[in-house]
Amino acid sequence: MIERLIHTEFEFSVSNFPVTGIIGPRQVGKTTLVKTFTYKKSFLYLDLEKLSDLNKLNDPELFLSSIPDHTIILDEIQHKPELFPLIRSLVDENRIPGRFIILGSASPVLLKQSSESLAGRINYIELYPLNLLELDGRLSIESLWVNGGFPEPALSDSKKFIQSWYRSFINSYIQRDLPSLGLPADPSVSRQLMMMMASLNGATLNYSMLGKSLGLSLPTVKTYLSFFINAFLLTELPAWYVNVKKRLIKSPKIYFRDTGMLHYLLGISNRDSLFGNIIVGTSWETFVIHQVKSVLNIDDEIYYYRTQDGAEIDLLIRRDNQWLAAAEIKLSFSPKLTKGSYLAMEDLGIKKLFIISPVEDRYFYEPNVEVLGVKAFLLEISSSS
């Protein structure tokens, strides 16, 4: 079994908070994490997509209050948001650590009742697809990049299964999950927009262009993308634009959260088709960014930086109001820096720059510029935690 990096954080949360929330996309390993954890007391697991478990909650107050000595795990909580006020009431009556664990495939932004009802009572932890530190050599970087980090396709040797898995995964989101979260949309439009976002992966977000291309109003496009983001399908990388003296790019970049899903939507199923596709560079960028995000502390911030004068850095990591690391992401065994990287370092006062590339051995490109692989960079920023 693969031990997830958040295991220690999860253990701390269950031991200290009355409610722990594990959030992340479907099939990312949330249920496996909580079912394989060793609890200090008896636990009860309820899958809120299972009719027999839902029936137990016909009178939820009676049922949940009858087992105060158990840790109660509620999976896919987004299907029963009306439980949040009751959970708050039960916690306030008996505020002990590890009372409830809730699992959700939607962010607290969509679960508004959660953020309103459980403020001060819940600790949220986000679970990402598998990363290189968790796999510890079990898969090659290339395999994880091509097939994505969702455990089932990542660990499968069958290309047919991987393609079938992503087809089912995406269909489920479009036809069932997004509508159940409240997206008032025609599934065919959701699919069309998702395909377009795959072709624009890594680009700066332009709502107007998307709306014109799809014949949708600006508010409609924003609504769709907000749901995609808060259902953990897409993520934004914000621009750093504190320096008002520069002509800065301020729009966020938009990325798929998992390269396996991105590749499926673009008809990419193996290394050859990936390297023969024009998106290979932005796909590598997507892979690196989400590997990095999966190991950061919850309060860390990440950005990109670009000016209209050509200064640019792909990835900036900020911790405690200071730069933790800055990196360029290059799909090359012999990466080169452009003038824009040096300009950005000067603009931001960055003393050291990393270049993340598919190399095995790290080396210094210049005294203050180091080239290293993805796993080495993850270890670098993890050791700074």
What is this entry, summarized?
This protein has 385 residues and is of the alpha/beta class.
Strand order of the largest sheet: 8-9-10-11-13-12
**Largest sheet descriptor:** 6 strands, mixed
Rg on CA atoms, Å = 22 Å
Please give the count of helices: 18
Low-pLDDT runs: none
Structure write-up:
The protein is α/β, with parallel strands linked by helices and 385 residues long. The protein has 2 domains: 7-126, Rossmann fold (3-Layer(aba) Sandwich), CATH 3.40.50; 132-382, no CATH class. The protein has 18 helices and 13 strands. The strands form 3 sheets. The chain has a 6-stranded mixed β-sheet. The chain has a 5-stranded parallel β-sheet with strand order 2-3-4-1-5. A two-stranded antiparallel sheet has the order 6-7. A hairpin with a 2-residue loop joins strand 12 (363-366) and strand 13 (369-372). The radius of gyration is 22 Å and the shape is globular. The two termini are 25 Å apart. The model has no long low-confidence stretch (mean pLDDT 92).
Please render the helix and strand layout as text.
Layout: H1 7-16, E1 19-23, H2 30-35, E2 43-47, H3 51-55, H4 60-65, E3 71-75, H5 83-93, E4 100-104, H6 112-117, E5 122-126, H7 132-135, H8 141-147, H9 151-154, H10 159-180, H11 187-199, H12 207-214, H13 218-230, E6 234-237, E7 253-256, H14 259-265, H15 271-275, H16 280-293, E8 301-306, E9 312-319, E10 322-329, H17 339-348, E11 353-356, E12 363-366, E13 369-372, H18 374-382
Parallel strand pairs: 1-4, 1-5, 2-3, 3-4, 10-11, 11-13
Antiparallel strand pairs: 6-7, 8-9, 9-10, 12-13
Helix pairs in contact: 8-14, 12-13
